[in-house]
């Protein structure tokens, strides 16, 4: 069930106080025993000692001692809201995904925006990528579109993700910085990973300091698949376009806001929804087939690349409206579990090696973070459609499945009672032909790391280009090891001379030779070989 919705004028009306709290309720223990005194522990005489017998004290302290759960390993700092996705254009010819079958169809949604690197208490206006995760409670299960506000990513292969995150997070020997990329480990890593160059350009642009969550785009990043009722599939990329427009702040503004109000983005989203100024995004798609994909020099399975909207315009199919703030930050914002693996009939994966790794990672981390296999039963994660399976028991089981025959197939539940897989309407993975030798080398189609970075830089106005140069200059000026700066500059010569020389001027250092770039741009070599070339000169 959806938690009770409250609006400002409902609050305090009748017996209900704010958010469903009632007047005149009795204070109890967790097991319901009404308390005679909640503020004093049971003691001997006037001055103690305190008695172990005080079950009310132990009940209270035991729960308090266990209030914290681990913060997310990335995207720890976030803020959420509830909303509705409305279908603007039915597309059953492309996909049988439940939200897009009928114009006007509404699907409940929950959105969590986040920064990536900072810890739970870090400031909102860090120069960082923003997460844009949307859970859609469809009639055919929960579909999560776990995206970012940047259309590309730092790495091509999921196995690099732990390295990337270790480099981005606060340095392990110092514990800082909590929220920014201005430090040696981050720049060291990206200087050795040319595939991160395109994303780096976006990160140093105004995009990464949005004015608020309401003024930023969202992207699914990966190429996914749409599948229609006949089993025909096409490639699809997802885009969220803010109807408020796209707005950012400049770095000096971000610094001031972070100091004055580190919760600025949280407050902004809450205030907008609470006052009825409901934020909206159009959901658009870029749909294409294999033949179209083959025309590009790059690979559509490579998450460091985008498909230019000039080449393939975004087609708007739905609109998301956020209309309800969270009632409880822990129950909703912290306990929500998004994952790319949460798909519904009509949505399927591609062989993007980043996406395939993500499909493993989210479920895995949530078992640890949420502490139980049964986190799908938490109200924010529970589907709004019927759920029936043969999973049972486990920690915190609150939704025991009924019936004697708790396995498949079984004859004890009877045809009309037991759940049966539905071969026609149930989820069927797209039939794909896969073949080839097992190997770790990346395909040659993943090798170009600079063309789209260059296109991005050139597409910016003069002012925006200067902001990018200044951002690189500022961040690199904080790097202590000069060899790292040199490598970054040498890599950026591959993007644009103006970019590299502009940054060198800001830093007051000479422009290095292109040969000082760290890693050969060939990706037909295993990384160990590439690095040994670098180390051996
Ligand atoms: C959160 C893994 C790439 C978007 C997370 C979490 C993990 C993770 C472990 C924490 C989840 C939790 O505790 O519930 C990975 C891996 C990646 C990857 C292994 C690459 C191999 C990406 C990419 C995007 C993305 C490319 C964007 C398209 C997000 C978002 C969240 C998140 C938005 C926060 C979800 C929330 O608000 O709860 N990721 N991630 N990640 N990731 Fe990724």
Features:
single chain, 537 residues, alpha+beta, ten-stranded antiparallel β-sheet, globular, disordered N terminus, disordered C terminus
Give your account of this protein's structure.
This protein is α+β, with helices and mostly antiparallel strands and 537 residues long. It is built from 14 helices and ten strands. The protein has helices at residues 55-65, 161-168, 184-191, 197-203, 251-260, 264-274, 290-294, 329-334, 353-370, 451-459, 462-477, 482-492, 497-507, 527-535, and strands at 78-87, 106-115, 130-138, 141-148, 218-219, 224-227, 233-242, 280-288, 315-325, 347-348. The chain is globular, with a radius of gyration of 26 Å. It binds protoporphyrin IX containing FE (HEM). Protoporphyrin IX containing FE binds next to strand 2, strand 3, strand 4 and helix 9.
* Helix-strand category: alpha+beta
Task: Please count the helical segments.
Answer: 14
Question: Tally of extended strands?
Answer: 10
Strand content: 5-15%
Shape verdict: globular
Rg: 26 Å
Q: Which sheet architecture does the biggest sheet show?
A: 10 strands, antiparallel
**Termini separation:** 63 Å
State the helicity in percent bands.
25-40%
Model regions low in confidence, pLDDT < 50 over at least 5 residues: 1-12, 522-537
**What would the average pLDDT be, to the nearest integer?**
92
Bound heterogens, unique:
protoporphyrin IX containing FE
N-to-C order of helices and strands: HEEEEHHHEEEHHEHEHEHHHHHH
